[in-house]
Amino acid sequence: MPRETTYYSYVVGELPEGCQLCVRGEKLVLFVTGVCPRNCFYCPLSPWRRGDVVYANERPVRSVDDIIAEALIQEAGGAGVTGGDPLARLNRTVEYIRALKERFGEEFHLHLYTTGALATKKALEKLYDAGLDEIRFHPDIFTPNSKLFEREIENIKNAFDFSWDVGGEVPAVPGQGERIKWFAEFLDRLGAKFLNVNELEFSETNMRNLLDRGYKPINDESSAIKGSLELGLEILRWGEENTSLSYHLCTAKLKDAVQLRNRLRRMAKNVAKPYMEITEDGTLRFGIAEYGNLDELYALLVKDAEVPAEWLYINREKGRIEMPVEVAIELAEAIEGDVRFFIVEEYPTWDRLEVERIPLP
Ligand SMILES: C[S@@+](CC[C@H](N)C(=O)[O-])C[C@H]1O[C@@H](n2cnc3c(N)ncnc32)[C@H](O)[C@@H]1O
Ligand code: SF4
């Protein structure tokens, strides 16, 4: 029987090393390029991520230094190299893998996702020499009669010439169980280590495609697709009986409630300013005051309201003054006029996504 993990997923055999770090929030998401030779109907990437763009987590990358800076804030123990297809920009991918290994040492674990379409022996050799530890193939098993799929399948065989961990990773598309089992048997014959199965999720980008094919979310609060988890479990039960692969069924809930939360908590302690609280979810909570003239407001708060200057931070980019929650609550009661006070909660990420805003009376 597949084991249920404490982080809302299911395992047969051993959890792949890349996943072990990921669930603890220790994997940097290194998005090398949005360029990809495929066009999966379930592709979750937004149009602006489909271009030749580079991100380390939410941070846009101009050079390797940006990647290192992000890894330090996260206290990352490794990175998942993703896209798009990282092999569509092979030199860049190799440069980043090499730089991360050089900066953080051999222990820094690197796994990479690829379609397999560009995984020639030469390309794989470059990745292996750069220090890649684990490679995960996602061939187009749901369009089996295409030339591209044939090439992907042929290329996967090249990966077994190197002593890294080789696995597959595909979404559990309801109605496609037989294709996934075919892929599992294929990987097993070659001597692969694992097959990861992802619970299928909708995003703003793929929602139309998924609805048109009759797939529906399980409820209003979840992005998971009905029937995908059940299919994943069925594949794990079958796989345990019929193959020697390890399996991991990675759920939408794991990604949202565990992996993201753990990553945010790791980052929050390194970016929180003294006036910010870190919540259980890893978000930053603090008070803000908004007013047209920030210098005037600052003078009012320091001189008239006698708030110690070290409790205040003028954030000109966002047009506000930041402060501890308690100070904002007191000031909101004491100050009359056009100044607006709020308690906000933000992600500790590069884009500082605001997730809550409570106006103070
Ligand atoms: C997000 S992709 C990134 C790498 C690459 N673009 C790919 O598709 O392989 C990583 C894994 O996510 C899975 N995936 C793709 N679309 C998905 C979706 N809509 N819901 C859940 N998993 C998905 C695939 O199994 C893929 O191996
Ligand atoms: S392989 Fe990944 S990035 Fe490429 S189209 Fe499919 S889901 Fe999108």
UniProtKB/TrEMBL annotation:
Full protein name: Fe-S protein, radical SAM family
Annotated family: Belongs to the organic radical-activating enzymes family.
Matches recorded under SUPFAM superfamilies: Radical SAM enzymes
CC cofactor: [4Fe-4S] cluster
Domain Radical SAM core: 21-234
Keyword terms of this UniProt record: 4Fe-4S, Iron, Iron-sulfur, Metal-binding, Oxidoreductase, S-adenosyl-L-methionine
Organism annotation: Pyrococcus yayanosii (strain CH1 / JCM 16557)
Cited InterPro entries: Aldolase_TIM (IPR013785), DUF8061 (IPR058374), Elp3/MiaA/NifB-like_rSAM (IPR006638), MJ0021-like (IPR040087), Radical_activat_CS (IPR001989), rSAM (IPR007197), rSAM_sf (IPR058240)
GO terms, molecular function: 4 iron, 4 sulfur cluster binding; metal ion binding; oxidoreductase activity
